[in-house]
Amino acid sequence: MLYDKIEPLLPKVQKPARYTGGEVNMCAKDPASIAVRFAFCFPDTYEIGMSHLGMKILYHILNKNPNFYCERVFAPWVDMEKELREHDIPLYSLETFTPVKDFDLVGFTLQYEMSYTNILNMLDLAHIPLTWKERDAANAPFVVCGGPCAFNPEPLHEFVDLFMVGDGEEQILELCEHYNAWKQRGGTREEFLLEMANVNGNYVPRFYESEFSEDGKFLGTKRIRDDVPEVVKKRVIPDLDSADYPDKIIVPFTEIIHDRVMLEIARGCTRGCRFCQAGMLYRPQRERSPEKLLELARKLLSSTGYEEMSLSALSAGDYSHLPELAKKLVEEHGCNRVAVSLPSLRVDSDVSDTLESTQQIRKTGLTFAPEAGTQRLRDAINKGVTEEQLRSTVRDAFSKGWSGVKLYFMIGLPTETDEDLDGIPALAQATLDEYFAIPKEVRQKGLRVTVSASSFVPKPFTPFQWEPQNTIAELQRKQMYLKDKLKMRSVIFNWHEPHLSFLEAAFARGDRRLSAVLLAAFKRGCRFDGWSETFNFDNWMAAFADCGYTCDQFAYHRYDLNDPLPWDIIDCGVTKDFLKREWQKALDAQVSPDCRKQCHNCGMREFCKGVCGK
């Protein structure tokens, strides 16, 4: 058994529980009785992958079917990779310690562009050929990908057999069902992929090709055969109450990033922030009913023993039944000291009653996202919140016993000036003022205001998709400018590595030419690029040079509004006309109202046949 070779390695590595499996609620089946085996691969460490809600949902859905077995695979940290390579042990699943190369389907979730080298590294560790052409010749497993980054699949086109675009609950079952039928009747790999290409939501890159001008300008991507779709439409689950959701989840033996029950209360968002890709990709906004959520909470807490649950949504404060749900959760589970936490909140969300309910058990962290320092820039990005709303929200939190808040901002936003940057320390000071305005006998001690500034990355299917990113030098200047301005007592300032954001922008908006760069970077040893201790910017720049490109031409490129875009092959539901209108509104610092108050004809109503706007 493979585990007999793995066990002696565990004392040599950090966090050996990453590699042992056997956790509470892990699915155990007899592989010999299974028709289709699916390796769900997360291209990062165990602690991050086990915190991902999408993996929990799809793991549950596949394993409910007696014919399918979904097993988990995570990227081994560099110490474990070294041991695996030295002892010639292939990458394996945690459920049965089966080599990944022996699975039928190998699926990766694409959550972050800077995990792409980990995908190549995991395939290499699994002894699976990296490109689909090589896998065809070797009759290796099919490699499939989904997740938000699949909406621009082109930088990975050489390495992936099939991209699944949109909500995956139905897609992943259809994939396994089609594979099972194909395996039983026989046929070529291309025949299977052609069949899948004609199932809504699936993009098979081998059936398409991109064109470039002599000077390297992208001219478009077209199908190379008539029996596949010209454009691939995303899949949408219209009703979350009827969508399957796990009633038990795996409980790890080691600490993970989000070590709690997660209740997905809603999917999508109606706010229309112009920088936010998720807000566009996951339209339309859909909610689970309080009754369904209360039922799920009971089952998940009973099956896991967790003492905290998080209410998950892009904008949790906008959930229409939030005060009612929070109150009932606390009433039902407070006797067991179960805390309820909320993710990042809009400062204009009316969450006063909710905070009053949730803080009765245990105060969890409070995070607010003003995003920009001035009203003009907040209006330009369609955030729309005011300083008075921020003051009112933090005042309410401090008066209810909180002493620490986190404020999230972005720098490098389109139309940003130094005056907009000055607004960030001004809002930090306003937050301090609200704390000290509360009488000493009322407020809690230990004031702590954490200000985080991430670098804006233009993303596909947003009104800012045509915009270039700020240069590294400009982002660094802005970071040091803010660092100097935020030297305030009780304020902590954090910022993101601009070199990493530079690469993220290139791969977010890049085209098929980046597949060669990705392969070159992997061969130069790049992996875990999202981790500061392993990120090697020089190797990445050398990889671009190896291929005759520069990162600048992708990250700093300004697309014309009428240019074809690498991701035009995908239809996410929002139209280019809508995005162009929003881009112009951004230049005019004009706010678009919440979709629940006014439909902006983004395209989703027609796309979803009336679901949007109900």
Task: Outline the structure in words.
It is a single chain. It contains 22 helices and 19 strands. With 614 residues, it is of the alpha/beta class. The strands form 6 sheets. The chain has a 6-stranded mixed β-sheet, with helices on one face. The chain has a 4-stranded parallel β-sheet with strand order 15-16-17-18. It is globular, with a radius of gyration of 24 Å. The mean pLDDT is 94. The protein folds into 2 domains: 2-212, 3-Layer(aba) Sandwich (Rossmann fold), CATH 3.40.50; 261-496 and 573-587, Aldolase class I (TIM Barrel, Alpha-Beta Barrel), CATH 3.20.20.70. Helix 15 links the parallel strand 16 and strand 17.
Strand content: 5-15%
CATH-defined fold name of the largest domain:
TIM Barrel
Q: Total helix count?
A: 22
Strand order in the sheet with the most strands: 2-1-3-4-5-6
Distance between the termini: 55 Å
The count of domains is 2
Indicate the low-confidence ranges by residue numbers: none
CATH superfamily of the largest domain: Aldolase class I
General shape: globular
**What class would the helix/strand composition place it in?**
alpha/beta
- The level-1 CATH class of the largest domain: Alpha Beta
Architecture per CATH nomenclature, i.e. the level-2 architecture of the largest domain: Alpha-Beta Barrel
